[in-house]
Amino acid sequence: MKRAVILLSGGLDSTTCLAIAKNQGFDLFSLTVNYGQRHLFELQSAKNIALSYDVEKHSILNVDLGQFGGSALTDDIEVPKDRVDSEMNQIPVTYVPARNTVLLSLALALAETLNSFDIYIGVNALDYSGYPDCRPEYIESFEQTANLATKSGVENAGKFKIHTPLIDLTKAEIIQKGTALNVDYSLTCSCYDPQKNGDPCGHCDACILRRTGFIKAGVLDPLEYPD
């Protein structure tokens, strides 16, 4: 079996990616990064998801982007709530500077040590918060860099591929795809500003996109919201 590295945040999208990679026959190696986010519920979710999929190895790395701040996810900045549709294409303060570049670089390093050329990331360019590092042109650029900047790429041992199976799907389509693959979405954590017990707030961008996606997909969201 070929090996694949899956960036696993503990959220809905990355978990769906994990299920897709498994369905495609890859031997799974998941990577979760503690990048200094203000809450750690998603890390526990990632651990539980990795266990449920019996991945070959689940690695958790600490890279504290919180030292730089600049994001509502890593700094003492209020997470925006109940943004209207006209605001959803503006880059919000929940954007973490260079996060996906850091995460993909770490996944690339892991993949090269595993002699793997397949990296999965759950970015989406339709129902998303407007982050620039979720766009197809960014992924294409990083993939080119991966093949230029590695020993494996330069020596033509293989060609690195950044898999983005969700990038052109709506949130509803992602949920439908995951449901067809028997993804247990009760294990996932999507909220940017969860309550003290880990339950979602229901009003941040991530919660709104998730809740709307489940409604449009005709699937019951297993998470409980305050309202």
Give an overview in words.
This protein is α/β, with parallel strands linked by helices and 227 residues long. It has a single domain, classed as HUPs (Rossmann fold). The protein has seven helices and five strands. A five-stranded parallel sheet has the order 3-2-1-4-5, sandwiched between helices. The relative contact order is 0.17. The model has no long low-confidence stretch (mean pLDDT 94).
Keywords summarizing the entry:
7 helices; 227 residues; Rossmann fold; 11% strand; alpha/beta
Q: Bin the helical content.
A: 25-40%
Mean pLDDT: 94
**Any guess at the CATH architecture?**
3-Layer(aba) Sandwich
Beta content comes to 5-15%
- Rg value: 17 Å
Distance, first to last CA: 45 Å
Instruction: List how many beta strands DSSP finds.
Output: 5
- The number of distinct structural domains comes to 1
SSE pattern: EHEHEHEHHEHH
Global geometry: globular
Q: Output the strand order for the largest sheet.
A: 3-2-1-4-5
Specify the structural class: alpha/beta
Number of helices: 7
Q: List segments where confidence is low: pLDDT < 50 over at least 5 consecutive residues.
A: none
CATH 4th-level superfamily: HUPs
User: Could you name the CATH topology?
Assistant: Rossmann fold
What is the fold's blueprint, element by element?
Blueprint: E1 3-7, H1 12-23, E2 27-34, H2 41-52, E3 57-62, H3 99-113, E4 118-120, H4 136-148, H5 151-154, E5 161-163, H6 171-180, H7 205-217
Helix pairs in contact: 1-6, 6-7
Short description:
The chain has 227 residues and is of the alpha/beta class.
